Amino acid sequence: MDNSNIYLPHLMIVEKITQEAPGVKTFRLKFKDEEAGNNFEFKAGQFGEYSAFGEGESTFCIASSPTRKGYIECTFRETGKVTSALAKLEEGQTMGFRGPFGNTFPMDEWKGKNLLFIAGGIALPPMRCVIWNALDTRENFGDVSILYGAKSVADLVYKHELKEWEERPDVRLVTTVDPGGETPDWKGEVGFVPSVLEKMNPSPKNTVAIVCGPPIMIKFTFPVLEKLGFTDENIYTTLENRMKCGVGKCGRCNVGSQYVCKDGPVFSKVELEALPAEY
Amino acid sequence: MERKYISHNSLMNWLTQLNNEGNQIYAPVAKGNKTDYKHITSVEEISMDHIQTTQSAKAVAFPRTEKLFSYTKKNGDVTLQNFDTTTIPETVVFGIHPCDAAGFKPLSGIFNWDTPDLPFNERMKRTTLIAVSCTQCDEFCFCTSVNGSPGNTTGSDILLTPIKDGYLAEIITEKGKSLVDKHSSFFEADPNVNKEEYLAQVPVQFSLEELNKKISNMFESPVWKQQSERCLGCGACAYVCPTCACFDIQEDAHGSSGNRLRCWDACGFSLFTMHTSGHNPREMQSQRWRQRLLHKFSYMPERISVRGCTGCGRCSRACPVDMNIAEHLTEIAAL
Predict the structure, then answer these.
(1) What Gene3D superfamilies does its record include (chain A) (predicted)?
(2) Which pLDDT belongs to residue B164?
(3) Are the CB atoms for A242 and A252 separated by under 8 Å?
(4) Do B260 and A7 touch (CB under 8 A)?
(5) Which residues in chain B are closer than 8 Å to A249, comparing Cβ atoms?
(6) Where residue A1 falls among pLDDT bands split at 50, 70, 90?
(7) Is A6 in the B-facing interface, judged by CB distances under 8 Å?
(8) Which H or E run contains B98?
């Protein structure tokens, strides 16, 4: 029997802090125990429980790609007491991490296909992991298109990476901000993600669409994808329910008999449609 | 399975002996009009004149609050002290009823279906369950409706059935056998009685087969709203339940050091599934009542092949607005 304590976090050194947007930070974390770091493996889509000792744990995805070794990254918005405590940490200080938990995006099945990423707001982090995974193994995939929307220009996260993707000839990036969120020098789109997607008019041919965002964005994006001819088998999303344990015991995150922490967080639209509407 | 006889006096002497050897003994103790499992130091404290204790015995393996690990912070650095298994005493739980003993199987299912839960498993490993068959029941008992019975041996290490002047002892597991073999002088030969004659008669209230058939396909049924209209969301049902295992993880901070705690929680609480954003997938009490029943009677059987109910009836006894689970299940089975 496995004698390890699944509730005991790894100690992580905050190696680098990036202020992405107002109240949004990215932490690059390195395992304090070198051996644990070397043995650590994860796949795109998985998440973890991040500890601010003295306040508790919060659930975020692993926002860095498994192709980038030696560290993991998480991006979070300062909202509750744990994220506020994490946001106070400085480079060189220690926090906790348990994971990786949950299922993964089926990157192997997607080989040879075009990838269309559609993200809204703070939901780019779970997708950033997949995007970099695809770009770091670029030869495995066809066209890579990214549609990313945020409330305002200031709220766009990963600004440096957006620039990098924009400049890459092998990536089609479309950014948009909600009406009123633009600045005088904004060169991207103005409008909500579903309508910009319609304008983008991507071909569903041999293409997988990965959609992450607030529930309202997902709700209005699915019909557009359907109209464009995307079938449910080729649409993927992630669910983000409240969690405590991350390993299917604490009883919070289930939707019907499916546990977001075990059977998710990645669901195809086919799987999503089979779930009772309680998420 | 080995069968023996033990007299009441020998039983008390045996428990005293087990206590003297350093085992922590939990047994029913009466206080006012309530009986609950307490850590006892003398068999004089034991009270067996009850139909059901208020709380189940699950806390011996899943304490109301327990420390998962401790931390100390110093100059931005952190050190951790892991869960200490060496402080868990050898424990004997005496006097639980078969419905409580049976409750440890679903608990173990939840705590082990994917990854083993160290604190729960270490406590279980050191716990021996000496159950006592039921000779009386009340209108809330419905073990016989969920495949249990007043003399059911499932989950117990030893099951004692009160017979004339003493007990029939059924020795069910190796753990039970080693506790008996160590003190075999307290035991006598198989009394050769028909156990059934001494048990309470618990009427079957609904057809489990019908319930199983219906409940997995009724997520959208109006019955959840009807049944839960008076539910207060107080969570008492979950706290007294022998199989409810939902928990919260909380920080117990004292300046620069502290503990990460696991605490009982309840799916009936309105904040249980609330997101930081304010979105709540189960925002209505009826959704939370549905979760409670479907988890126990549909999701658990589907995912871990064990039902989350042993028919002890505690939730119905504890409910401040008289919601009776057996009545509600009967209603569903008859739909």
Answers:
(1) Dihydroorotate dehydrogenase, electron transfer subunit, Nucleotide-binding domain of ferredoxin-NADP reductase (FNR) module, Translation factors
(2) 84
(3) yes
(4) yes
(5) 110-111, 114, 117, 245, 247
(6) very low
(7) yes
(8) helix B98-112
By Cβ distance, the residue of A8, A57, A79 closest to B82 is: A8
pLDDT number for residue A154: 94
- Please give the single-letter amino acid code of residue B3: R
Residues 6+ apart with CB under 8 A from B61: B104, B107, B120, B123, B124, B127
Query: Would an 8 Å CB–CB cutoff place B112 in contact with chain A?
Result: no
Cα–Cα nearest to A149, from A86, A220, A79: A220
- Kindly tell me if the per-residue pLDDT of B277 is higher than 90: no
CB atoms within 10 A of CB B90: 14
Torsion of CA A220, A201, A169, A212, to 10 degrees: 10
Instruction: Decide if B58 touches A, using CB distance below 8 A.
Output: no
Average pLDDT of chain A is 95
pLDDT in tens, A187-224: 999 999 999 999 999 999 999 999 999 888 999 999 99
What is the location of CATH 3.40.50.80 in chain A?
114-238
**Number of other CB atoms surrounding residue B284 within 10 Å:** 13
The structure tokens 């206590």 sit at B19
Integer Cα distance of B329 and B331 in angstroms: 5
* H/E stretch holding B67: strand B65-74
The CATH classification number of A114-238 equals 3.40.50.80
Structure tokens of A1? 């029997």
The predicted structure's pLDDT at residue A215: 84
Contact, B72 vs B122, CB < 8 A?
Answer: no
Q: Are B131 and B160 in contact (CB under 8 A)?
A: yes
CA distance A239 to B105: 30
Other beta carbons within 10 Å of A38? 11
Per-residue pLDDT, averaged over B304-315, amounts to 97
Which CATH fold would you assign to the domain A10-101? Elongation Factor Tu (Ef-tu); domain 3 (2.40.30)
Separation CA A121–CA A128 (nearest Å): 12
Rounded to whole angstroms, the maximal C-alpha distance in chain A is 62
List, for residues B3-46, the tens digit of each pLDDT value. 999 999 999 999 999 999 999 999 999 999 899 999 999 999 99
Distance, CA of B292 to CA of A78 (rounded, Å): 32
Strand order in the sheet with B2-7: B2-7, B166-171, B158-163, B127-132, B91-96, B24-31, B34-40
What would the pLDDT profile of A218-276 be if each residue is shown by its tens digit? 999 999 999 999 999 999 999 999 999 999 999 999 999 999 999 999 999 999 999 99
* pLDDT score, position A214: 87
* A86-135 tens-digit pLDDT: 999 999 999 999 999 999 999 999 999 999 999 998 889 999 999 999 99
Nearest CA in chain A to B295: A257
Angle at B109 between CA A269 and CA A264, to 5 degrees: 15
Measured between CA atoms, the residue of chain B closest to residue A80 is: B276
Question: How do beta strands A235-238 and B2-7 pair?
Answer: unpaired
Distance (Å) of CA B90 to CA B46, B126, B245 = 19, 5, 22
Is the ipTM beyond the 0.85 threshold? Answer: yes
Label residue B242 exposed, middle or buried (CB < 10 Å: 0-12, 13-18, 19+).
buried
